[in-house]
Design brief:
The chain has 3 helices and 4 strands, in the order βαβαββα. The chain is α+β, with helices and mostly antiparallel strands and about 80 residues long. A 4-stranded mixed sheet has the order 2-1-3-4. A hairpin with a 2-residue loop joins β3 and β4. α1 packs across α3. The protein is globular, with a radius of gyration of 11 Å. The termini are close together. InterPro entries: DUF1450, UPF0349. This is UPF0349 protein D4T97_004050. Pfam families: DUF1450.
Length: about 80
């Protein structure tokens, strides 16, 4: 079972798309995009994704990718 990374389509338009593209290259991740993840206040302020249901943020697409991988390292599924 792969970690699930969820993106809000509105946040993708703010720069998250670049992070999502990088993560899609990793066959060990399942990437999903939704119309809304109900984190509108967060979405308006920063880049973010839900990683196995937990919010992970980043100041830039590169920072978001780095923080997602760090979260996965710190919180293994098994």
């Amino acid at each position: 079972m792969n970690p699930i990374i969820e993106f809000c389509i509105s946040n993708l338009g703010m720069g998250g798309y670049e992070a999502m593209q990088k993560l899609e290259d990793d066959p060990d991740l399942d990437i999903v995009e939704y119309g809304c993840l109900d984190h509108c206040d967060l979405c308006a302020e920063t880049l973010y994704a839900l990683v196995n249901g937990e919010v992970v943020t980043g100041d830039s697409p590169e920072d978001l990718v780095k923080n997602i991988y760090q979260y996965l390292e710190d919180n293994p599924m098994f």
